[in-house]
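To whoever picks this up:

The nightly regression suite flagged UDP-N-acetylenolpyruvoylglucosamine reductase as changed. Nothing in the input moved, so I suspect the structure step. Input below, exactly as stored in the fixture:
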Amino acid sequence: MNLMHDEPMARHTSWRVGGPADRYFEPSTRESLSSFVRSLAADEPILWIGLGSNLLVRDGGVRGTVIGLHGALDELRRVDADTIEAEAGVHCARLAKFTVAAKLAGAGFFAGIPGTVGGALAMNAGAHGGETWDVVREVEVMRRDGTTVWLPRQAFRYGYRHVELPDDVVGFVAARFTFKADAGGVAEADMKAWLARRKATQPVGRPTAGSTFRNPPGDHAARLIEHCGLKGHRIGGAEVSMLHANFIITDETACAADVERLIACIRDTVREKTGIELQPEVRIVGERA
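Regenerated output under the current build:
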């Protein structure tokens, strides 16, 4: 296990911005994670992250403890004919490829999610019309006392890009997903088509956090942002992508405040010109500098 103090969160977020966390912990095993969580004070703030791909950490950093699961909890296995079990640190693209290789259909949308299974569970991430919790059978969660328990999908309230955790749960450890047999043999072709479309329409390889805003009912955030003439709009080192208007990209000069100001600018402009209030999909945490 690895515990760091005053760790810059820019090293652990896909926008590559963010101030220091008081403590940053990377477990090496489930046991080390459980032991560490158990050692924390009952009122210690905990931020549980994966790839940091749906997260904006402000420049003042994070008070408390950040637990990063990327690189840990990465076991992936087939449980039975139609069930795949993935730990929280497994990359969503890896889950998609594993499932397709198992001749199962319905996981291809995971290939378009730039994060881990734990992050996808936490926000009900989706792509290409599929959503994470549509295929969840049960999840394993960790409590504040470091113990884990498996809970059925029905134990959670979830919706579009939103999941409510029980009060004593600090994060997801693993999940079991149920898929259908790939009877038509098209799952691999579908996944490759989705990946090709993502590469053609999104700024893949650039520092982004995925979709910045949720799609409002009956519309698309990207269409609204582009309609308002905001493609290419820039504040400091943050810019609205010319390829996909719902993506904000950053350069090496960016700070979290640039991104947050650009998010506010987009919301204000879209509200003023269309009357629609966009809701951020990214989670904003920490203190301003």
